[in-house]
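User: Please fill in residues for this 155-position structure.
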């Protein structure tokens, strides 16, 4: 958790926060998606995180890729901004968060590897064979909104 978010949480406790986030939707030349397995939840998801104060969404997506997969990325076109129902998370410590996520197409400029802190495993997935049963609701909604899924599964 960033110093900024730690300070906000100290002030408001576990009450719901509305946070802005950015994600780098990293694909390879065959159209496969790079997903990471979260160290905290064990779930697969896109690469990204909260946007820090005074940081642009594109810079946040670039920074999060470097932090989570130890790789430089080239940020491409804006894919959209997403939020609303399905973009909420209740963390294991009881903190409630609703996200508005800015998603960018991205491609790797160096070889990825999990950082071992936020991400413990990385995998390339065909969009038709995503590990939906091992993904959180937020990532299933995001991938549906990005057009990778026909419908969000209830699982």
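Assistant: Residues filled in for all 155 positions:
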């Amino acid at each position: 958790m960033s110093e900024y978010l730690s300070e906000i949480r100290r002030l408001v406790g576990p009450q719901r926060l509305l946070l802005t986030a950015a994600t780098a939707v990293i694909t390879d030349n065959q159209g496969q998606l790079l997903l990471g397995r979260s160290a905290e939840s064990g779930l697969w998801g896109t690469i990204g995180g909260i946007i820090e104060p005074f940081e642009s969404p594109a810079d946040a997506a670039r920074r999060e890729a470097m932090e989570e997969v130890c790789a430089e990325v080239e940020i491409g076109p804006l894919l959209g901004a997403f939020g609303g129902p399905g973009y909420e998370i209740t963390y294991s410590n009881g903190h409630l968060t609703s996200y508005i996520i800015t998603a960018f197409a991205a491609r790797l400029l160096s070889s990825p590897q999990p950082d071992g802190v936020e991400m413990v495993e990385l995998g390339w997935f065909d969009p038709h064979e995503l590990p939906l049963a091992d993904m959180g609701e937020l990532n299933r909604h995001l991938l549906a909104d990005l057009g990778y899924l026909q419908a969000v599964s209830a699982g």
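For context: Confidence is low (pLDDT under 50) at residues 151-155.
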